Amino acid sequence: MKILYLSKKEAKEISKAAKDLGFEFQPEKAILVDNESKVLIGNGIFIFINNRILPFVADKRAETLPEVSVDEGAVKHIVNGASVMRPGITKIDYNVKKDGIVKVTNAGHILCIGVSLYDKEEMEKLDKGVVVKNLHRKGDKFWNAVAQYLASSKQKG
After folding, report:
1. Is there a single domain that holds both residue 33 and residue 8?
2. CA pair distance 12, 10, nearest whole angstrom
3. Domain shared by 36 and 73, yes or no
4. CA distance 86 to 89
5. Are residues 55 and 79 in the same domain?
6. What percent of the chain has pLDDT over 90?
7. How many domains are contained in the chain?
8. Could you list the residue range(s) of the whole structural domain that residue 8 is in?
9. Do residues 54 and 97 share a domain?
10. Residues 6 and 21 in one domain
11. Residue 1 has what pLDDT?
């Protein structure tokens, strides 16, 4: 696990990207996860993946994202990394936009953070197919990187 302190310029750019999504976030460090992604640590935790910033699934700010709810049958697939299929959807927030970051929930619990492939209206008209790409969930590489970081921080402190 490689941890880097961000330059003021990098931190400012990331803060601006988070603000564009409606979040106040001041990053300080980055955990390099792989060539395309990193976990950003500051006054909260965000993820940077595929040139996109999104809140960590356990960060309280994830609660404010537009919501796509799914039925119980979809849960096990989503928590194992599958994208969200149209037949499993039970509710779509009015503010779900194409290419927007959304939370996918069941019974009020966030299962994953993803990117919507359709606007709400388009999604409602579909009968089948992938509608939300799963980008981050509990137990994925980002979750594990944060757990490792927190464990090493406790050992040092």
Report:
1. yes
2. 5
3. no
4. 6
5. no
6. 89
7. 2
8. 2-61
9. no
10. yes
11. 79
Q: Quickly tell me which residue has 């966030």 as its tokens.
A: 110
Are residues 71 and 123 both part of a single domain?
Answer: yes
> Positive or negative, the Cα torsion across 62, 65, 67, 73?
negative
Residue 47: phi and psi, rounded to 5, are -120, 140
Q: Report whether 143 contacts 151 (CB < 8 A).
A: no
Q: What is the CATH number of the domain that holds 99?
A: 2.30.130.10
Q: How confident is the model at residue 140 (pLDDT cuts 50, 70, 90)?
A: very high
Q: Helix or strand or coil: residue 151?
A: helix
What is each CA distance from 38 to 25, 87, 116, 145, in whole angstroms? 15, 32, 21, 9
Q: Are strands 89-92 and 67-70 parallel, antiparallel or unpaired?
A: antiparallel
pLDDT in tens, 20-61: 888 999 999 999 999 889 999 999 999 999 889 999 999 999
Residue 115: which residues within 8 A CB-CB, separation 6 or more? Answer: 52, 99, 100, 101, 102, 132, 133, 135
**94 and 51, same domain (yes or no):** no
Q: Both ends of the chain: CA-CA distance in Å?
A: 18
